[in-house]
Design goal:
By secondary structure, the protein is mainly beta. The protein folds into 2 domains: 88 residues, Immunoglobulin-like, CATH 2.60.40.1180; 272 residues, Beta-galactosidase, Chain A, domain 5. 5% of the residues lie in helices and 49% in strands. The strands form 6 sheets. The chain has an 8-stranded antiparallel sheet, covered by helices on one side. A hairpin with a 2-residue loop joins strand 9 and strand 10. The two termini are 21 Å apart. The relative contact order is 0.15. This is Methane oxygenase PmoA.
Length: 376
């Protein structure tokens, strides 16, 4: 192996565990010495091989890996090497297409599915399997209470007067799946970009959606899904000031909900529906008993989102949703305007403190800084 260059990862002000990082470099950079991305390898300074996933796009090469542990104030050196043959594949993430869904496996174990069944009003992610084989989320089709709450979904309850959140018979809007624009998998992450149309109850498209979902190769008790959604108005669009909205909606497992002994906590330390519902916060966590273990789901609001930090529509019966529309009023968008929402969902073992939810939020908004090591 030939050393090409070294990268220094600085933890900054926060402890890091199983934290995704990336670094980009020009495809024409002399540092690559003409090596193709399939020949690159990453090691620690001590020579331990680190799973590396490389992408080449628009004249740049982006290197992705996961920092396993790095304490606040510390730094670590990683060595980028090149060989003369393709590296053996590391078992990471795989995408398996089945009828009406795409399954996501991590380390050979099923994690979740993106389901886009045309018989349903909207796509969803679920179930989301935890470290002990039970789902973090509720997903059953027999429950009559809020049957439209399917695991993890995106929707708004009033789009030009049409309900895309609830599903009253023959009166609701639908989200139609048009296919995948991108499918990427590898040792570090998998990415799905789905194309959808948000339609009224006459199936006339109102908005075009590009939904990007990224999954990471982290332990089963510390898993993330990044959601990056772009909605393009196909005409004049008005979001109503509705309580039945997200756009992000999550329904926690029945045994996790507060009515069954679970706990709701927000970023400011407020506890329970009475303190958290209708309050703004950068994140909100919901944890409780699932299969005899404490598991939780934390939803993170990105600082670039409209009206950050979001208000939370979070309920003792098991709903965790980000919703500004009800509390700030509706929104008007003209034809061609784009609305973007970004969220990270952290599926964790333990309660809010044990899972380090506050620190994981900083991994999302203040990731470690990666720099090229200066040559002496």
């Amino acid at each position: 192996m030939k050393t090409l260059f070294k990268l220094v990862v600085n933890a900054g002000n926060h402890n890091r565990t199983h934290c995704p990082v990336s670094y980009w470099i020009s495809s024409e950079s002399p540092l690559l010495q003409g090596s193709g991305i399939e020949l690159l390898r990453l090691t620690t300074a001590a020579g331990e091989v680190v799973p590396l996933q490389c992408e080449e796009s628009e004249g740049n090469v982006t290197l992705h890996w996961i920092v396993q542990k790095l304490d606040a104030g510390e730094s670590a050196v990683f060595v980028v090497e090149a060989g003369d043959k393709r590296q053996e594949a590391v078992e990471g993430l795989t995408l398996i297409e089945k009828e009406n869904r795409m399954d996501v496996h991590i380390g050979g174990t099923y994690f979740t599915s993106y389901v886009y069944d045309a018989e349903l009003a909207k796509p969803y992610l679920g179930p989301v399997i935890g470290p002990y084989g039970e789902s973090f989320t509720r997903l059953d089709f027999e429950t009559k209470e809020h049957p439209h709450h399917r695991s993890v979904w995106l929707a708004v309850g009033d789009v030009n007067g049409v309900d895309l959140w609830n599903e009253p018979k023959d009166r609701h809007g639908i989200q139609t799946f048009d296919g995948f624009k991108e499918r990427v998998s590898g040792p570090v992450f998998a990415r799905l970009t789905a194309s959808q149309q948000w339609c009224n109850n006459g199936k006339r498209p109102q908005m075009a959606e590009k939904r990007t979902m990224t999954f990471y190769n982290t332990p089963a008790g510390e898993r993330f899904i990044d959601l990056d959604t772009e909605l393009r108005a196909l005409g004049r669009i008005e979001f109503g000031a509705t309580k039945e909205a997200g756009p992000l909606g999550i329904r926690v497992a029945e045994s996790m909900k507060a009515e069954n002994g679970g706990t709701i906590v927000n970023a400011f330390g407020s506890v329970g529906e009475a303190e958290c519902w209708g309050q703004r916060a950068p994140w909100c966590d919901y944890y409780g008993n699932v299969g005899g273990q404490t598991l939780g789901i934390a939803a993170f609001d990105h600082p670039d989102n409209m009206d950050f930090p979001t208000f939370w529509h979070v309920r003792d019966y098991g709903l965790l949703a980000a919703n500004n529309l009800y509390f700030l009023g509706g929104k008007l968008f003209q034809k061609g305007e784009t609305i973007r929402y970004r969220h990270r969902i952290y599926f964790h073992e333990g309660d809010t403190l044990a899972a380090g939810v506050a620190g994981k939020y900083h991994d999302y908004i203040h990731p470690p800084v990666v720099k090229l090591e200066e040559q002496s």
